[in-house]
């Protein structure tokens, strides 16, 4: 269990919510980590969510924020900025994301991050019974109810993905 005792796993356990651990062989050459995880685990990609660390500019809370969106979706940076009450947002550079979260890219979880960030879960998860998020290391995923993720990550709901046409 020592290898699975990531800060993310400890955070979900401390929150007292139900979860399952899923492991797969991480592919460092995958173009889309979340989609590769879904394929490796034989899961519907719509259930797998990626964690993005973003920089916020202007407004009362400049700094960093965490966005959790479907693996196949694109983050709406303007919507994230609005949800975080900032003037602008952009993806944080890899080194900043890794330093802030305490995780390496490909293993960044919305749970148990080194530094507590304002965290936003895309509303698309509301309709799902369970979603999959990174478990805090490459090749480890956590499956849990979206409402439990909101509780464990002290997150809030937001419409933060780019909407596709009709």
From TrEMBL:
<keyword id="KW-0648">Protein biosynthesis</keyword>
<dbReference type="GO" id="GO:0016829">
    <property type="term" value="F:lyase activity"/>
</dbReference>
<dbReference type="InterPro" id="IPR004369">
    <property type="entry name" value="Prolyl-tRNA_editing_YbaK/EbsC"/>
</dbReference>
<protein>
    <recommendedName>
        <fullName>Cys-tRNA(Pro)/Cys-tRNA(Cys) deacylase</fullName>
        <ecNumber>4.2.-.-</ecNumber>
    </recommendedName>
</protein>
<dbReference type="InterPro" id="IPR036754">
    <property type="entry name" value="YbaK/aa-tRNA-synt-asso_dom_sf"/>
</dbReference>
<feature type="domain" description="YbaK/aminoacyl-tRNA synthetase-associated">
    <location>
        <begin position="29"/>
        <end position="151"/>
    </location>
</feature>
<keyword id="KW-0456">Lyase</keyword>
<comment type="similarity">
    <text>Belongs to the prolyl-tRNA editing family. YbaK/EbsC subfamily.</text>
</comment>
<dbReference type="GO" id="GO:0002161">
    <property type="term" value="F:aminoacyl-tRNA deacylase activity"/>
</dbReference>
<dbReference type="InterPro" id="IPR007214">
    <property type="entry name" value="YbaK/aa-tRNA-synth-assoc-dom"/>
</dbReference>
<dbReference type="GO" id="GO:0006412">
    <property type="term" value="P:translation"/>
</dbReference>
<dbReference type="Pfam" id="PF04073">
    <property type="entry name" value="tRNA_edit"/>
</dbReference>
């Amino acid at each position: 269990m020592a290898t699975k005792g990531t800060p993310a796993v400890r955070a979900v356990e401390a929150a007292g919510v139900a979860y399952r651990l899923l492991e797969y062989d991480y592919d460092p050459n995958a173009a889309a980590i979340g989609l590769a995880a879904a394929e490796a685990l034989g899961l519907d990609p719509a259930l797998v969510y990626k964690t993005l660390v973003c920089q916020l500019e202007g407004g009362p809370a400049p700094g960093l924020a965490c966005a959790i969106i479907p693996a196949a979706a694109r983050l709406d940076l303007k919507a994230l900025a609005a949800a975080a009450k900032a003037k602008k947002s952009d993806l944080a550079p890899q080194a900043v994301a890794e330093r802030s979260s305490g995780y390496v890219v490909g293993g960044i979880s919305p749970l148990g991050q080194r530094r507590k960030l304002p965290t936003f879960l895309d509303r698309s998860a509301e309709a799902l019974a369970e979603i999959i998020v990174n478990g805090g290391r490459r090749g480890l995923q956590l499956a849990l109810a979206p409402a439990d993720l909101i509780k464990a990550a002290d997150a809030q709901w937001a419409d933060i993905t780019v909407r596709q046409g009709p």
